Amino acid sequence: MKKLLLTLLAAMCAAAGATGADRAPEIISVNTDRVSLILCVERDGRVHMRHFGGRIDDAAPLAAYSTHRRPDHGAGEEIYPAMGGRNFRLPALRATHADGDLNTELRYVSHETLPSADADVERTVVRLADPVRPLEVELLFTAYRRENVIATRSRITNRQQGPVTLHAFYSSALSLHGYGSYLLTQLRGGWADEAQIEHLPLGHGTHSISTRKLVKATHSENPAFMLSLDTDRFDEEHGEVIAGALAWSGNYRIDFSVDEYDVLTILAGANPDASEYVLDAGRTLTTPEMIYTFSDCGAGGASRNLHDWARRYGIRGGDRGHVPTLLNSWEGAYFDFDEATLRGMIDDAAAMGLEMFVLDDGWFGNKYPRNHDRAGLGDWEVNRAKLPGGIDRIASYAHRQGLKFGIWIEPEMVNPQSELAERHPEWVVRAEGREAPLIRHQWLLDLSNPEVQDFVFGVFDHTLALSKKIDYIKWDANRHAESVGSAYLPADRQSNFWVDYAEGLYRVMERIRAKYPDVLIQACSSGGGRVDYGALKYFDEVWTSDDTEALSRSRIQYGTSLFYPAAVMGAHVSASPNHQSGNVIPLKFRFDMASAGRLGMELQPRQMSDSERAFARRAIASYKEFRDLVEEGDLYRIGSPYDPSGTFGTLYVSKDKRRAVFLAYCIRYRGHTPVPQFRLRGLDDETRYTVRELNVDRPRCWFDGETLTGAYLRHEGINPPLQRLYDSAVYILEAE
Ligand code: GLA
């Protein structure tokens, strides 16, 4: 009650400000070691954003800053622009108040630094309110000092007598001014073609990265971007770059809007398109977190900041040590297996030195057996014909062979041909009276419904109860939302579905993680359809793409690496010819490519020759030697798979710069003339590194075994003999 009175009092003071009462401008600084976000509370109570970029210790002069614009000509760069008053920019908040008023004008109420258990993390809250219609907004800024990341989100509370409709409710707004140009880098793609890079200069007007698919939401775009400032070049090493990533596994939109003042406003958050959120009286909506970083040493620096932040704070299991190498059954067996097939795969996996076996789709359903993708989803009991000994017998077998055991589930989905669909037609996402369209012969379950949340939690829980020896779950989600409707939500709350679904998923994941903190969980969604920092709070890794072909992977892994660390990037060696592309690629190249991520295999080992298995054994052993660098090291992208040279490399350097691994590839044949020269950044100039090539029978180039200084490697570099298509090399560099 006291808090409410204080808030009201503060809002009244702010209202006084809005009507002309004066207050001295006040600066609010949110700082990391090298980045500052600076706000100014103006005389009239508006809160403007003044700076995001390199750190400014003394920001006091910004209290007197003037844009030199006519004061009656539109709004300034408000930190959370709302629709109403003078604001002409895209609104971060657009609401219809309980009484029908369409305007919202937010004024400063208070701000404070919140207590934090971690000395490297500082939390600041800025409270705003509409002085006329009681709607409150808290803006939360979390500064991660060492990683130079600032996360922002908003929290909107309805203090009115009736419901407020939120048409737009972004997580954050960021305004930048004074730059001559902005080069946007974004990911685009599709199924089996994720994370393709696109660079585009931002002109005036609005460009958006968005989805309305809800599930399988990161195939065609990803809620992450880089912005190179004052340049038209994407540069790994030089220049100022802002990177952002939204932690949300639902509909998202990031708008980049350049106005007539050349001010760029970035709005990021849940997609406001067709997803009005009706916020009942007294209720609060917390929006997803938007993660920002700034680098003055190019895109590489921005990626490393995000990776450091992710491993320390952003992802589940970021600090949990080594990830087991694995054999996944999908491309090796598909739906066609029995216990003997699986035992054979387990034996072969163990013999090659792999550490886990993952049983993919096809193990469940009896009335409607899951022998193809047209039946069985929803019926999570072991198929007796294929696995008469149950999951425990096969999981125990894996454990006896020294392997961990994992299993696939797709708990948010149902096939019409299933007992679940017969029992609970009302759980299916569909609009009353309309046909529910199928994708991959399946429907989506309505996770806005708490009963469905219980069911989905139960699928996980019951699966884990099938055997005490389940160490890993592959959680799939193979369709997106269409023709949306919920039998659970009331007619006047249908559009809350979009937000409620994603929050329902998180509620389930909270319960799962409370009960199963140590089970590894992979987020798969037809490959890389759920690659976002919202999911990664709960999932340990992502299945980067259903395209396992190593050439395509060069681009998919490169694109993913802009925002997400290799520690989460599932990468498997599969058969040749590849099942997706038909491409024939040597085993060494396939291993060298997959070894830049979380290494696994996904094929039937029985179909490999003896020499192939022997090579696999060696490459897996090599990987174990350097995987700590892939998981925890600093990434330096050396060239890119988009370079016309047709060669590029990936370097992971240990934090103490004593060890590194360099993986290099040729993806285009250009005759036998040009030999790549890779200059390796990121090492210590003074240190002498011994270079040793892995995965080859005998030394094949002049610098193998040589000791070279960091300065030599940076300025002169090495020239591996990668001239033919699919030549590849892996070098370990160790300080003397
Ligand atoms: C999706 C996944 C694959 C595999 C199949 C099984 O396509 O992305 O990896 O698990 O489902 O049906």
Distance between the termini: 66 Å
How does CATH name the architecture of the largest domain?
Distorted Sandwich
User: Mind telling me the C-alpha Rg?
Assistant: 27 Å
* Bound small-molecule species: alpha-D-galactopyranose
Largest beta-sheet characterization: 10 strands, antiparallel
Query: Strand tally, please?
Result: 36
What oligomeric state is this? Answer: single chain
Please report the number of helical segments: 12
Poorly predicted segments: 1-20
Which tags fit this structure?
3 domains, 736 residues, Immunoglobulin-like, TIM Barrel, globular, eight-stranded parallel β-barrel, Beta-galactosidase, Chain A, domain 5, ten-stranded antiparallel beta sheet, 21% helix
Could you explain the architecture of this structure?
It is a single chain. The protein is of the alpha+beta class and 736 residues long. The protein has three domains: 2-66 and 73-314, Distorted Sandwich (Beta-galactosidase, Chain A, domain 5); 326-629, Alpha-Beta Barrel (TIM Barrel), CATH 3.20.20.70; 636-735, Immunoglobulin-like (Sandwich), CATH 2.60.40. The chain is built from twelve helices and 36 strands. The strands form seven sheets. Strands 5, 6, 7, 8, 11, 12, 14, 15, 19 and 20 form a ten-stranded antiparallel β-sheet that branches. It has an eight-stranded parallel beta barrel with strand order 21-22-23-26-27-28-29-30, surrounded by six helices. A hairpin with a 5-residue loop joins strand 16 and strand 17 (264-270). Helix 7 (450-465) packs parallel to helix 8 (497-515), helix 9 (550-561) runs parallel beside helix 10 (587-594) and helix 10 packs parallel to helix 11 (610-632). The longest helix has 23 residues, at 610-632. It is globular. The termini are far apart. 54% of the residues are buried. Mean pLDDT is 95; it is low at 1-20.
